[in-house]
Amino acid sequence: MTSNAEGVANHPSDPYEIDPIWTSSRTARQIYALGEVEKTDAPDDNLPQGAERSEQFVLEVSEYFERLDSIQETIRSSLAHIRQSRIAPSAINAPPPGFVPPSLGVGLPPTDGDNLRSRGLQEERVERDAWKGILDALTRLKQAKQDESGETMVTKE
Length: 157
Known about the structure:
The chain is mainly α. The protein contains four helices and two strands. The longest helix has 36 residues.
């Protein structure tokens, strides 16, 4: 690392030329890293310079903290709602590792006589509606065949 006439250290372009003073403590390493931050801006980044840069920084930080405040308010209101609703903790706990939710859809009733169900209310409703749809379709098909056979008997006579 080299020094200029005022004794201020110039940052080397080669990372292996770092003065050992900058690696002597954690604080020194952090100060050195802060000095390197300015070098991360490429010349073609079109970032504002000088006072404009400070204003841009203030705007960005303000936006960041507004977002954090809105997240905090949302979390707090959600927790207050959960407390007020007295939702059971088991309803909001994460499922155990390796848990695979049951698939939705129509299934046949168990043939081994085991009537214990492990499906939720929505799955039961989907299955019920599907079976009702099947029954309705079969009823319409039967009625159409009866109407068709009734018409053929009338035309034969």
